[in-house]
Each structure stands twice: as C-alpha cells, then as structure tokens.
Amino acid sequence: MKTLTNVIDLKMYINGEWVDALSGQTHDVINPANGEVIAKAPLGDVEDAVRAIEVARQSFDSGEWADTPPVQRASYLNAIADKLEERADEFALLETLNQGKPIKESEIDVADAVACFRYYAGMITKPDGQTYHVADPMQAMVVREPVGVCSLIVPWNFPLLMSVWKIAPALAAGNTIVYKPSEVTPVSAMKLFEIIDEVGIPKGVANMVMGPGPTVGNELAESHLVDKVSFTGGTVTGRSIMKAATGNIKNISLELGGKSPNIIFADADLETALDYTLMAIFFNQGEVCSAGSRLLIEDKIHDQFVERLIERAKKIVVGSGHSPETEMGPLVSQAHMEKVLKYIEIGKEEGARIVLGGNRLMNNGLDKGFFMEPTIFVDGTPDMRIVQEEIFGPVLVVQKFSNEKEAIELANNTKYGLAAGVFTQDAAKGLRVIKKLRAGITWLNNYGPTYNEAPWGGYKQSGIGRGLGTFGLDEYTEIKQININLQVEPVGWYKN
Ligand code: NDP
Fold first, then answer.
1. What structural domains and CATH numbers belong to the chain?
2. Which of the listed residues 289, 464, 468 should we mutate to test ligand 1's pocket, taking the one with most ligand atoms within 8 A of CB?
3. Are 386 and 354 in contact (CB under 8 A)?
4. Whole-structure pTM over 0.85, yes or no?
5. 246-273, pLDDT tens digit by residue?
6. Taking a C-beta distance cutoff of 8 angstroms, is the pair 396, 281 a contact?
7. How far is the CA of 69 from the centre of ligand 1 (A)?
8. What are the backbone angles phi and psi of residue 177, rounded to the nearest 5°?
9. Cβ–Cβ under 8 Å, residues 213 and 439
10. Would strands 375-378 and 353-356 be described as parallel, antiparallel, or unpaired?
11. Taking the mean position of all CA atoms in its chain, how far away is CA 182?
C-alpha cells in the first residue's frame, strides 16, 4: 500500500506565484481513513480573495487570454491533459489520501478529468454561433464571447473532477478564473495548478485561493469585479451564493444537491437492477450529488428485492481506500460522519425500519477513521426527513409503490430534481415514466454513468444551468447579436 511520508505544504496560486495566506495562517488537512494530518493549507481570508480577483480582472481586461487564438488555447488544455495523464497514479493516490474514496474510483476520476480537458480543447476549435434569415437588406448573426472573470467554487466529494468540470470549459471559452477548492480537500487542487503553471498559461489567467466558504467563497460570489460565479455544492450554500451574486447581477450556474429516486418495476431484470442499485448509493460512500438515495420498489417484488439487496450490500468491503480490495472508503470527515449518523437516528425516530447497518465501524483498525456500515432503511414514507433531505452518505431509504402513477408521484415528491433511474424491460413504459420525472439526468436500466459529452445539472432546487457537453461551454459565454446592413444607405425614416 502506498502512503505519503511527509506533510504536504500547500500554497495558493495568484498571478502565477505560489503564495501563503496574507495572514500567514494555515489549517490541517486530514486523511479520513486514519485522522492523520496529511497537509497544511493556507487559511485564506477575504483579502486573499480580493487579491486574486483583482489579478483575474486585470488579466481579462488586458484581452491576452481571450485574444489567444482558439487553436493555441486548445494546445494549452491538451498539454494539461497530457501532464495529468502522465501523473495519473500520483493524482489517484492523493485523491484517495485526502477524500477517502477507493483507489479504483480515484483512478476513474483522474481519467475522466484528463478526458474533460481534451473534450473542451477539441470543442473550442469547432464551429459555433448562428446566422438568421431576416428581412433584406440585413444579415443577422450570433457569436459567443467569454463572460469575463469567473469564480469557480467546488465541493469535497470529487475534488479533482468537479474542479476540472469548471476549469476546462471556463478557460476554453477565454475567461480568466479564480477557483476555490473545499477546505477539506485542497490537495489535488494544488497539484492541478502545478500543471497549469508548468504548461505556461499566461500569469493571471488561472488563480487559486484557499479558505473558508463563508469568507473567501462569499467574496468570490459577491465581488463586483467578478462577472460570473459557477458553484457546485449544497442547496443551502447555493441559495447564499445567489444572494451574494445579486449586487452586480452576476451570471450564475449552480449544481446543487439531490435526493434522487431509483425506480424498480416488477418486470425489470432484477440482477441488473440490483447491481446498479448498489452502485447508485454506495459508490463514493454515497457522497454523490446524484446518488440514488431513494429506492422505489414495486410492491410485488419488494420483499424479494430487499432481501437480495441486503445479501449483496453486506458483502461490500469497507476499509482504507488505498487497499485494492476496498469497495467503500471512509466518509470525508468526522463532522460529516456525525451528520450522517444523526440522520440514522432521525430515521429510526421517524419510524423507518433499519434492515442493514446504521453504525460507525470501529473494528479491525478502522477506529481512527470515519468509516460507516452500508445502511438500508425500509418503510420510508414521504413525510420523513430521511426521505426528503439529502444525507450524502451510504444510507438508502426504500419506499414501496403499487403502480406507475404512484411511482411517478413518489419520485417527484421532493424539492430536488437532479437525477433519476428507472428499471423495466418494457421500453415504452420506461420512457413514459422518464418523461414524467422532474429531473435533469435520467437513466433507463442503468444508474450513474456520466459523460463529458452530455449535460449535467438539475431541475427545481438541484440547480440552475448545465455543466459538461456543449451546454457546459455555453455557461461560460455571452451571446452577442450582430446585425449587418448589406445596403449601406440612409434609412429615410425622418423626412427632414
Ligand atoms: P458546501 O455547499 O458546503 O460547499 C461547497 C463549496 O462552497 C466549498 O468550497 C465551500 O467552502 C464553499 N462554501 C461554503 N459556504 C459558502 C458561502 N457562504 N459562500 C461561498 N462559498 C461557500 O457543499 P459540500 O462541500 O458539503 O458538498 C456537498 C454538497 O455538494 C452536496 O449537497 C452535494 O449534493 C453537492 N454536490 C452537487 C453536485 C452537482 O453536480 N449537482 C456535485 C457534487 C456535489 P468550504 O468547504 O471550504 O468552507
């Protein structure tokens, strides 16, 4: 098993320089598998955010990056992808060390991050814009231009991947950026900026600050020097970011929480449904915005399906993410584990029945980390908090339905609308149900795949806008209408 021997000394990256917080303060970054300090990170404050924003503003206003030919911007992004790929093992190791997830999941994240840079490198040299047929003698067209200075704020569950989903399209489109990782998981963020530095992107284009959300993050959302804020995180934080962004009517993109339904009809291929159901809730310890955390099962197969689910979930190997056998790692922090355990108590008090897990794991040397058992509740009802609120851990709540209409009603009955899965061998029914679901990402007879090519985001309180795909690039552009007069002569509206 590979581990680190030295505590990593993290820095922020502003105007092409590696810097500490102006206050000189730092905070400890913890390995969630054993509680050990793995890094010291600058504890930035508002003044550090201001410094980075001013640099990004100056850089954007100079026009240097937006005026760099797209083919050259693409070559920078491809160079980042190449270096990230060369260092893939190191990045996977660090991601697991800091976030806890199983190493094979970190490896997928790094590969996806590489592909994301390549996807947007390709995208920016492709045709875009539109022309319109309007009355002679005019010709109308639309071109896309960068928005300006973009604040990018990301959470701790996929530290590298969530960052790349924003950094790649924002830079591709010609913006300058100020990026902030979560305080809990800043390690891969700094390593990514080492690569951004190495490939020689002009100073001031890409900046990275570290520090608490309510101070540093809030400044990134509020500053009048910033044109856009793109945020991924919880819905409560998203609301606060929206408010902070009103001062100069910022362009905003929000990718927020979810409480996504996974619907299993009796005519589904049950082994396929089982397999995906496990992944939907236990992948990344359930710390996934699109987790299938509500399992809706048709009554005819409910008991049989739950029984098989328990059998399979019991066998999930929980342990240090660095062990190749591990299938579920620790939760990201003690505070987060305590929040998840609290929800388990709430579920019991509400009358849901626990049929698997529900506890912290303390045996076999796991006591120093933040490990939990895969947990399943049955008898969930729509009034319960564990059915309505995002737990963001390995906790599945099962509900029963008796027909298609009831399945749709239950599925749509939360404030969220991020994702949904449907399992049935009746293709028409599957599509019919999916068309009634108020969710931005849906899967038929599978659950979870994400593609750089396809849009990511939610309905209702799961967010505004879409990441990834062509939609993801559009989020970082303004649309300019251009009307050209093909007959240059006075219009003659006024007689004298
Ligand atoms: P938070 O909302 O707590 O934090 C996300 C980021 O926002 C962190 O960098 C945090 O900083 C920062 N932040 C916190 N408060 C503020 C503020 N007032 N102003 C500006 N920035 C702030 O989310 P978590 O990190 O706990 O992540 C979990 C959440 O993320 C879940 O709800 C999950 O559903 C959601 N998520 C959504 C995804 C999607 O695509 N829809 C994908 C992944 C996660 P710091 O932590 O350093 O204080």
1. 8-256+462-481 (3.40.605.10), 261-444 (3.40.309.10)
2. 289
3. no
4. yes
5. 999 999 999 999 999 999 999 999 999 9
6. yes
7. 34
8. -135, 150
9. no
10. antiparallel
11. 12
